[in-house]
Design brief:
about 800 residues, alpha/beta, GIY-YIG endonuclease, 6 domains, 6-stranded mixed beta sheet, 26 helices, binds adenosine-5'-diphosphate, binds zinc ion
Length: about 800
C-alpha cells in the first residue's frame, strides 16, 4: 500500500504536490512539518506538509521525499487556514504565501552533491566522455555540487549522465541540507562538584595559595553566586573583577572550574524593565471602557483618537487586560521607523513579555521569536511588528491592534502575496475569535465607512493628553505676489519668522517635503531637454551631495552632466525640490541651526532611523527635514513648529486616494507639533490655499473630508462601494504588450458585467526596460466577489495559454492601493 504526503513548495505555484513516503513516515508526518523534497531536475526544496493520504496523483508519478526535517509541526493548522484565505482572496499562489510567511532561515538551503563510490574499482576506459570528465574532477575534489557539474559538462540537463554513472556504481548522489538557524550559545562557569560546597573552600584556597589572581576569582565566584542566585556566565565573572579571561581558563585546566554552554535569546529586554504605574486620563479611561464594551458585540472596533490623544497608553492598558487572561496579542505598525520609540515604551512596561518581529531583525532573531511563539513561551506574549508579524504561529490570539490603520504601507505591493495586513489580520483574529482594534487619528475612508455602518464598533478620543490644544495652522499662499517677493529659496518669510522664533525659544522644528533628493527634474535652459532614465520613462532626480542623477524607480545613477546631452549647452537648471535642497537652503538661512534629514537616503541600515530619531530626541538636532516618514506617529515633546513646504504635489497625485492621503499626511505631520505642554504651530505653504482639503486640515474637519470623499468614491466607482482588482501587464516588446493588454481587456469586459477600465498607460509607463499597461476591474457591492475572481482567474489562465502572450507578465493586485 503506497503512502503519500501533500506538500506546499516555496515557489510561485498555486497547487500542492504529492510525494511518496514510507509507512513509518506516514505514521509520523503531521501537517505543518517541513520536508525536503526533490523538485524539477536537480533541486531540493524545503516543502511544508499539509496532509498525508493514500491517493496517488493522477497526472504524474509521485517522487519520494528526501527527508523529514521536523519532529513537530512548526506551522500550525490555523496558519495553514489563514494562508489559504490569503491565496484565495488575493489571487496568488499558496507557495508565494508560504515563502513570504516564513523567516527565510526556516526555509533551508539545499545543495545536491555528487561523490565517488570509493569501494568500487573503476576502469576509466569503461566511461563515456562525459562520465570521464566527472570522474576526473572527482579525483581532485571529493565531492561536486550540481552547478559545478553543469559547468564541467557545459550543459544543463546533467541528470541522464549522472543516472548512468549511478547505475554503474561510479558515483553516489547525496543531497545535503544545511540548516541556517543557529542558536546563540553563551559560555558559563561553575565549580567542579567537589568544590561547590563551602566546607571545601579552605582546601580549595590552599591549592591556589600561590596563584593570587585565581584565588581572587574563586572568591569572587562565591560572592556573585550569593547575590545573583543564578548561573554565572564567563563574561559576568570576568567583567566583575579585574582579571584576564586566561585566569578562568587556568582554573578550568586545573579541573576546578567547569565550563558549559547555555542557549541564550538574542533579544532580551529584561534590563530595560522599569515599573511604571500607568494612570489613564478620564478621557482615556472612558475610551478604554467603551472599547471593552464594544468588544462585547463587535469583532472589530475603530479607535478614532486625534494626534497625541494618548492612544498608545490605551493600547497598553488593553494589552495588560488580554495577557492577564493568558491570551496572545499582536500589535501591528505600519513601519519600522515607529518601532524604536514604541518598543522602548512597551519594553519598559512589559519587559520580556514583548517580542519584536520585522524585516530589520536578523534571520536568527526572527526564528527565535517564531519558536517562542510556537512554544507558547512566557516571552513573546505580545508581538510588535510590521505586516509580516501577522504570519507568526499564534495559538491563542486574543487581541490584534492595528496602529495607524490608515497607512498604505500595510498593503504589500511587491512581491506576491499582495495582501493588506490590516484586513488579513482581521481575518486572522476572526479565526481565533479574537478582537481587533484599529487605531488612527485619520482613519481610512473604508474603515470609517464600516464604523459608520456599524459593521465595526466606533470609539472617539477627541482631546489631547494633558489637554494641549491641537496646533494652530497658518496657510501661506504661494501664488500671492506679496508673499512671493519675500521668499528665501523655498521658505516664505512667515515660515522663516516662525522658525527663528522657535529656535530662539530653544524649541525644535520639523519640516516636511514629500520628495527626497535635491530636485526631481534637471532641465536644459537652451533646448528644454530633461535627462531621463535610460531604462525607465521618468526624469532623473538630482542628488547634490554625490553630484549624481538617480532614477528613483530602478536605482540607476550617473554623474551630473557637465552639458546637455541634446544640445551641449552648459546652461542647466533644476526644477522642483526635495528634502536635500531644503536642508541645503536651511544652512544659508539659519547658519547656526543644527539640521538633520530623515528620508530613504539617510536611514539605511538597521539603526538608521534610530540614530536620527535619538539625536532629535536628545536635541542634538534643531530642525529635522524629512519625507512622509515624519508623519508616522513619532512622539517628540519639544517640537513647537511644523512646516509643510509644499502641499500641492500631494494633492495632485494621479490617484483616487490623493485627497484622502493629503489630508492624512498633513494632519499627521501637523500632529507632531506641541504634543506635551504648549500649543504648537503649523505653517502650510501652498499654491491652492482655498482647496477643500487644505481647509479641512486647518479646521481638523475629518468628518467633512470623509463625507466629501465618500461622495466622490460613490460617483466615480471606487472603494468602499467598489472592490478593485488591478492587473498590471509588463513586457519588453511594446507592440506585443499592447496587443496582449487589448486582448485581455476585451475578454474581461465581455465576460464581466461590471466596469472594466483600460488598458491604461500608467504615469511611469516603462520601468527597467519593461513597458507597462494596467487594467482595472471594479466589482460592485452586489456582485459576488469570489465568483468574479474565479472568472478573472479563468480568463488569465486562457491568456497565458495564448502562445504569443505567454511571456507577458501579469501582476494581480486585489484591493489595489
Ligand atoms: P497618540 O498615539 O494618540 O498620537 P501618544 O500615545 O503618543 O499619542 O501620547 C502622546 C503623549 O502623551 C506621549 O508622550 C505619552 O507618553 C503621553 N501620555 C499619553 N497618555 C498618558 C498617560 N495616561 N500618562 C502619562 N503620559 C501619557
Ligand atoms: Zn539642451
Ligand atoms: Zn530607471
Amino acid at each position: 500500500m503506497p503512502f503519500f504526503v501533500e506538500v506546499i513548495l516555496p515557489l510561485n505555484l498555486a497547487k500542492t504536490f504529492t510525494y511518496r513516503i514510507s509507512e513509518q513516515e506516514f505514521a509520523t508526518i503531521r501537517a505543518g512539518m517541513r520536508i525536503a523534497v526533490p523538485f524539477g531536475k536537480n533541486k531540493i526544496y524545503t516543502a511544508l506538509s499539509v496532509e498525508t493520504h493514500e491517493n496517488p496523483p493522477q497526472l504524474y508519478e509521485a517522487r519520494e521525499i528526501h527527508q523529514v526535517l521536523d519532529e513537530n509541526p512548526i506551522v500550525t493548522e490555523n496558519q495553514l487556514k489563514h494562508w489559504n484565505w490569503i491565496a484565495s482572496y488575493y489571487m496568488c499562489a499558496i507557495g508565494d504565501v508560504y515563502r513570504s510567511a516564513m523567516p527565510s532561515a526556516l526555509i533551508l538551503e539545499s545543495e545536491t552533491l555528487i561523490r565517488q563510490n570509493t569501494d568500487f574499482s573503476i576502469d576509466p576506459n569503461d566511461l563515456t566522455d562525459d562520465e570521464f570528465l566527472i570522474y576526473q574532477a572527482l579525483q581532485q575534489q571529493s565531492s561536486l555540487e550540481v552547478h559545478e557539474i553543469m559547468a564541467i559538462l557545459g550543459k544543463k540537463n546533467i541528470f541522464p549522465v549522472l543516472r548512468k554513472m549511478m547505475v554503474k556504481n561510479v558515483i553516489s548522489l547525496q543531497e545535503e541540507i544545511s540548516e541556517t538557524y543557529k542558536p546563540k550559545l553563551v559560555r558559563y562557569i561553575r565549580l567542579h562538584q567537589e568544590f561547590e560546597r563551602e566546607e571545601n573552600l579552605q582546601e580549595l584556597l590552599d591549592i591556589l595559595k600561590n596563584a593570587s589572581k585565581q584565588k581572587e576569582l574563586v572568591l569572587q565566584y562565591f560572592q556573585i553566586k550569593a547575590v545573583d542566585k543564578k548561573p554565572i556566565s564567563v563574561k559576568r565573572l570576568v567583567e566583575s573583577i579585574d582579571v584576564l579571561p586566561a585566569a578562568v581558563k587556568a582554573l578550568v585546566d586545573k579541573g576546578i572550574f567547569e565550563e558549559y554552554h547555555l542557549q541564550h535569546d538574542r533579544v532580551d529586554f529584561e534590563d530595560r524593565l522599569e515599573e511604571r504605574d500607568l494612570q489613564l486620563s478620564s478621557a482615556q479611561q472612558k475610551a478604554f471602557d467603551e472599547i471593552l464594551k464594544s468588544f462585547e458585540n463587535k469583532e472589530v472596533t475603530l479607535l478614532h483618537g486625534i494626534t497625541a490623544s494618548g492612544k498608545t497608553e490605551v493600547y497598553i492598558k488593553l494589552i495588560e487586560e488580554f495577557i492577564a487572561s493568558g491570551k496572545q496579542v499582536l500589535y501591528l505598525l505600519p513601519e519600522i521607523a515607529l518601532t524604536t520609540q514604541l518598543v522602548a515604551r512597551l519594553a519598559a512596561h512589559f519587559g520580556n513579555t514583548v517580542a519584536v518581529y520585522h524585516s530589520k531583525y536578523s534571520n536568527n532573531e526572527r526564528v527565535e521569536t517564531w519558536n517562542q511563539i510556537l512554544g507558547n513561551s512566557e516571552k513573546a506574549q505580545v508581538v510588535i511588528g510590521a505586516r509580516s508579524a501577522m504570519f507568526l504561529p499564534f495559538h491563542d490570539l486574543g487581541l490584534v491592534i492595528v496602529d495607524e490603520e490608515h497607512e498604505q504601507t500595510f498593503k504589500q505591493v511587491d512581491p506576491a502575496p499582495r495582501y493588506h495586513a490590516r484586513d488579513a489580520a482581521i481575518v486572522l483574529a476572526n479565526q481565533f475569535g479574537a478582537k481587533t482594534l484599529l487605531g488612527s487619528a485619520t482613519p481610512s475612508i473604508e474603515t470609517y465607512f464600516n464604523a459608520q455602518n456599524q459593521k465595526y464598533g466606533h470609539v472617539e478620543l477627541s482631546e489631547r493628553y494633558g489637554n494641549v490644544l491641537l496646533p494652530e495652522i497658518e496657510i501661506v499662499d504661494l501664488k500671492d505676489k506679496y508673499f512671493r517677493k519675500k521668499m528665501s529659496g523655498h521658505f516664505s518669510d512667515t515660515l522663516c519668522d516662525h522658525i527663528a522664533k522657535a529656535l530662539s525659544n530653544g524649541e525644535q522644528v520639523i519640516l516636511f517635503q514629500n520628495r527626497r533628493g535635491y530636485s526631481p527634474v534637471v532641465e536644459c535652459l537652451t533646448c528644454g531637454h530633461v535627462p531621463q532614465c535610460s531604462q525607465c520613462d521618468v526624469s532623473m532626480t538630482y542628488h547634490k551631495a554625490k553630484d549624481q542623477l538617480r532614477c528613483h524607480y530602478c536605482g540607476s545613477s550617473m554623474a551630473f552632466p557637465k552639458q546637455c546631452h541634446a544640445c551641449h549647452s552648459t546652461d542647466l537648471t533644476t526644477k522642483g525640490f526635495g528634502t536635500e535642497q531644503i536642508q541645503h537652503e536651511l544652512t544659508d538661512i539659519f547658519p547656526n541651526a543644527k539640521v538633520g534629514r530623515m528620508d530613504q537616503d539617510t536611514t539605511r541600515g538597521k539603526f538608521g532611523f534610530e540614530k536620527i530619531i535619538d539625536s532629535f530626541k536628545e536635541r542634538e538636532i534643531d530642525i529635522l527635514v524629512g519625507t512622509q516618514m515624519l508623519a508616522k506617529g513619532l512622539d517628540f515633546d519639544n517640537v513647537s513648529l511644523v512646516g509643510i513646504m509644499n502641499a500641492d504635489n500631494m494633492l495632485y497625485h494621479p490617484d483616487f486616494r490623493a485627497f484622502e492621503r493629503s489630508y492624512q499626511m498633513m494632519t499627521q505631520v501637523s500632529g507632531r507639533a506641541g504634543r506635551s505642554s504648549k500649543r504648537g504651530k503649523v505653517v502650510i505653504q501652498t499654491y491652492n490655499p482655498y482647496h477643500n482639503i487644505i481647509r479641512q486640515v486647518t479646521d481638523s474637519d475629518y468628518l467633512g473630508m470623509f463625507t466629501e470623499q465618500l461622495y466622490e468614491r460613490k460617483i466615480y466607482k471606487y472603494p468602499p462601494y467598489f472592490k478593485l482588482i488591478r492587473l498590471t501587464l509588463k513586457h519588453r516588446d511594446f507592440d506585443k504588450l499592447k496587443q496582449g493588454a487589448q486582448w485581455l481587456y476585451s475578454v474581461l469586459s465581455q465576460n464581466l458585467e461590471m466596469p472594466v477600465l483600460g488598458p491604461e498607460e500608467p504615469p511611469v509607463s516603462r520601468i527597467r526596460n519593461e513597458y507597462i499597461r494596467t487594467i482595472m476591474v471594479k466589482i460592485p457591492q452586489d456582485k459576488p466577489l469570489q465568483g468574479t475572481k474565479k472568472t478573472v482567474r479563468k480568463i488569465l489562465d486562457s491568456f497565458e495559454s495564448v502562445a504569443q502572450f505567454r511571456a507577458i507578465k501579469v501582476v494581480v493586485n486585489v484591493d489595489f492601493y
